[in-house]
Amino acid sequence: MRLLIADDEAVIRQGLLSLDWKSIGMEEVYAVSNGEEARELLLSTVVDIVIFDIRMPGMTGLELSEMVRERSMDTAVVLLTGFSEFDYAVKAIRSGVYEYLLKPVNPRELFDTITDVKLRLEQERYKRNLVREHESQEGKYDTVSQVRNYFLKVSKSTLNILTDLAEEFCHPLSLNELSQRYHFTSSYMSKKIRQETGYSFMDILSAVRLMNAATFLQAGEKVNAACEKAGFNDQRYFSQIFRRVFGCSPSEYKKEEHDASDIRFGNVLEKTAKRQAGQL
Q: How far apart are CA 87 and CA 237, in angstroms?
């Protein structure tokens, strides 16, 4: 496994770097002195576990943790924090950070923590592989499985909400309706979904519907039927959003051959979110 240490204090950084990481299965260890360097390395190199100082120049450990979550990186985050920043660390754990450690950190405690995080990461990967193998054997990769697997680290209540969304995408579905079902205010639920997933409610719902519309078109459905079955009630709007995400009209898409990965939920969601942000 690969480990990244990011801390702006040279003494702490060098002390951590000098530990015998190979003894607990860390074959490669990187060290950087600020958040921007950590960001660049994460975007260019596959890293399994990161140790972030909660406060660093460039980007803080919390901001980096948020980036890892938003990009759905297969990376476990451990935060180093001072006692005065304890509340921030607690919030971070709720947002998907695996563990936090108070400074000054004891090497034995650090090794025990990283060993535990490594085990949890391996277990999560093993479960994901089992699901993929099962879906491959069944010859299908249904909407609910894709959505649940993509958002493994969200809270149970948010996962339940997203599961309902994935199951009921073909019906009229709104944030207000789901928030009432789960006894939340719509503003709270909107914020909760955004914080835990990195995407808005409409990003996720649109991506689910577009993914299924593309699947229906590939299966030979007419454009109006694919539009209706995917949950869109306005074919003109459907055609507009479809073109912006897939780069062609639904009728053009229907005539072409496409790789299955093009309509996996994660790929469609990323394109949909960029479209909503005006980046496509």
A: 44
* Cis status, amide bond into 104, omega within 30 of 0: yes
Q: Give the count of alpha carbons within 13 A of 99, CB side only.
A: 20
CA quadruple 166, 168, 170, 174: dihedral, nearest 10: -100
What's the CA gap between 212 and 59, in Å, rounded?
37
Name the 3-class secondary structure at 123: helix
Q: CA nearest 211: which of 263, 249, 163?
A: 263
Model confidence pLDDT, tens digit, residues 222-252:
999 999 999 999 999 999 999 988 889 999 9
CA 212 to each of CA 102, 109, 233, 236, 259: distance values in angstroms, whole numbers, following the listed order:
46, 47, 14, 17, 14
Crossing angle (nearest 10°) for helices 186-197 and 201-218: 70
SS3 state at 52: strand
Strand partners, 99: 78
Q: Which amino acid is at 4?
A: L
CA torsion through residues 211, 216, 219, 220, sign: negative
Q: What confidence tens digit (pLDDT) does each residue in 81-118 have?
A: 875 665 665 555 555 678 888 888 888 999 999 999 99
Nearest Cα neighbor of 33 from 15, 8, 14 is 8
Q: Are 9 and 32 in contact (CB under 8 A)?
A: no
Packing angle of the helix pair 235-246, 201-218 (nearest 10 deg): 90
CA angle 101, 151, 128 (to 5 degrees): 90
